Structure formats: C-alpha cells, structure tokens
C-alpha cells in the first residue's frame, strides 16, 4: 500500500483518534470528516505499515462492522417514522454529506435494530371492527366534519417556504402538500425541466445561496464521483472545476461499461 492512501491531514487525524477504536470505526470517522470512502481493511493495512496502534486486544470474534456512527444512528431514528427506506437513506446522506447509504441498507438496518418500517399505516386491519360501528349520533357530524373542498386551519398556502432538517429549503407548489426544493425551482425556471436522475449542487456548498450561477446541474453518477474524489469545495470556482473532472470520469466509466457489455 502506498503512503499516498491518506493525505498528511488525514494521517494526522487517524493518529489522533486511533487509540481505543476498531479499524471499521476509524474508517467511518475519517470518511465522515473528509467525505472519503476508506474501508476498515485499508485502515488496518495503513496502521500496520506505519506502526500505528489502537491499544485493543481482540478476543474471540471481531467486532462486527457498523453501518452508522452513533450520531447517524440517532438521526436515522429521529426521521424513521413515516418515511420510506429510500427517503431515509437520502436524508441521512444529505445530513452527513454522504453518498453511500442505500435504501436496501436502511431496510436491513431497520430489521436488525427492530425499527418500524414506516410507522403506523392508519388503516384498519382485516377483521377489525370499529368502535363506532352500528352506532348513531343524532345532530352530530355536520358541524364538526370536513366537507369536500374544506382545508384544515393549519394548511400552509402554496408558495410557502420552509427549511427542513436536511438543510435544504423547500417550497409548497401544489395541493395537497406537494413540496419541491427551491434550488430545483429556480434552476428549472431558467433552464426548463430537469433531466431524470439529476440533482442540483451548490457551488459554494451554501444551501441558502440560490443565485443561479451557484446552482450546478449534475447527474447522480457525476455526484457520486465528485463525492468519492472529494471534488466539492466551499470555493465555488474549485467546485465547478471539480464537477468538470467528475463528468469526464463518469463519462469514461460509462463508455467503458458499454464496451464490456458488447463483448
């Protein structure tokens, strides 16, 4: 393994946190801090090469690899109810600047940790009898029930903007309760409908800067490359240059894959 696996800054951080931690946990912490994708095996080989010790004695089976850090686990549990696995994966990735958590991993994580899939459905199960079945309530219902066309008093009007826990600002665009990221709306107003499997990246990483020049359209494959290669920066010009590099890498990979399929 070459010494270039870690930058000097990453090497210094590893040495700072190594003591008392397993290689898988060290990899997770480094990946979170530097938006990288190191594995526990790579960290182990690097530590052995440069005699970096954690001070742990392994007895019996090795500690199982964990998908999430304690902080990420707590966040997942806070947003778990009422969301699909794909939605939870997207929220965790956005919250912690990752692009590696998938819907299937969230589904498996829920199952292993006995977390409810999507919360209560609000539906009666087959064979369940309502407490009010067969009962009549004279003079009641008409004054307290919602009628067709009526809206709850706390319904937010179309055009309302809110900032959610994922750090992005959303705008209500239709009823009932249809929302869309403001960055998407601004980009589409200037350029037309966004292509499928594409997202908007903030050039300066400031999710409150909606200047059109700060909004960059990228494909999900390009975003994956940009995250993996650490090409996104707080400097807008550096990010724009990084996106160009990511596009070349993603395109080259796509062409290579197509050639292999033809063989």
TrEMBL record:
Residues 181-222 form the HNH nuclease domain. InterPro entries: His-Me_finger_sf, HNH_nuc. Pfam families: HNH_3. This is HNH nuclease domain-containing protein.
